[in-house]
Amino acid sequence: MNNEPPWLAKEVVWNGKRYPIQWKARSGGGGAWVDNWFSNMRPCSEPLLWQGHQFDSVEHAYQSAKYTDPDKIMRIRGSVRPEGAKMFSRQWAVETPNWNERKLAVMWEISVQRWGMPKEKAELLQHPEPIVEFNNWADAYWGVVIRPTGEVLGGANYLGLMITAIRRQMMEAPDRVPQITPQFQTHVQPALL
């Protein structure tokens, strides 16, 4: 972010390791948010195909997976920005049966597709582990919540764990599509209950 205020942390310490933090100014002013290189809000280099529709980002596809109504899916899909897709989704009750039990597998499938794209795969393989989804928007399920000062409030980091698992499988077996493993599901499953 240009002209970052001095109170925005440049790094955080979590589990004994230092992580650099990048910030992005909110459109229209009003502060900043953590800008992760692997964010689901970033457009993909090629369209994602999910449930017979093309989407520009993981966020678009993931939000649409919550619905069965074609009109809602099209509104989410047609949203210019991923933030808009998330905003539409928050206006409606989730329609997909057993969503809380399914959301992890849905995110895995969409993420495997994204990180299988040549440009995204190259970027993923060049970054070291572990991958941590730091955020300042209070998402303690998919990430680790921090304050702008760098104070870590905690979180499960399931998105970071998922992307790390996908990366490891790509490194170990480059010609195979990463599969969600029983070990990964066992580790994450308790939070879904």
Description:
This protein is α+β, with helices and mostly antiparallel strands and 193 residues long. It has one domain (11-192): Tetracycline Repressor, domain 2 (Orthogonal Bundle). Helices cover 38% and strands 15% of the residues. The chain contains seven helices and nine strands. Strands 7-8-9 form a three-stranded mixed sheet, with no helix packed on it. Helix 1 (58-64) runs antiparallel to helix 2, helix 1 runs parallel beside helix 3 (82-90) and helix 2 packs antiparallel against helix 3 (82-90). The longest helix is centred in the middle third of the chain and has 17 residues, at 99-115. It is globular. The chain starts with 10 loop residues before the first strand and ends in a 5-residue tail after the last helix. The mean pLDDT is 88.
